[in-house]
Design brief:
Strand content: under 5%
Number of helices: 2
Largest sheet: none
Helix content: over 70%
Distance between the termini: 84 Å
């Protein structure tokens, strides 16, 4: 065993504590990393808000298009009935546009 006397253990402890203190003193400050983390969190929050806004607009556009499609289908069915009445024949079956 390399350490046999109490003086060697004390010296080992002193060297370990000195190394820890030197490492702590020479380590870069954490302010820079905290600032970078805060900036990244701010950028993410802005991106998230922007993405939610664009998604909300896209969902609204989809809903508008669905309403417009239903109106157009109704108008098409009405036009088919009018054409059939003018021809004097049976109306055509409903068309599937999509």
């Amino acid at each position: 065993m390399p350490f046999t006397t109490p003086e060697q253990f004390i010296l080992l402890f002193v060297i370990l504590v000195a190394g820890w203190l030197i490492g702590y003193a020479s380590a870069p400050g954490t302010r820079k990393y905290k600032r970078q983390l805060r900036d990244e969190a701010t950028r993410y929050a802005a991106y998230h808000d922007d993405a939610e806004g664009r998604l909300r607009i896209a969902d609204q556009r989809v809903a508008d298009l669905h309403r417009e499609t239903e109106v157009l289908r109704h108008e098409l069915a009405e036009a088919d009935r009018t054409i059939a009445a003018l021809r004097g024949s049976e109306p055509l079956p409903p068309r599937d546009l999509i």
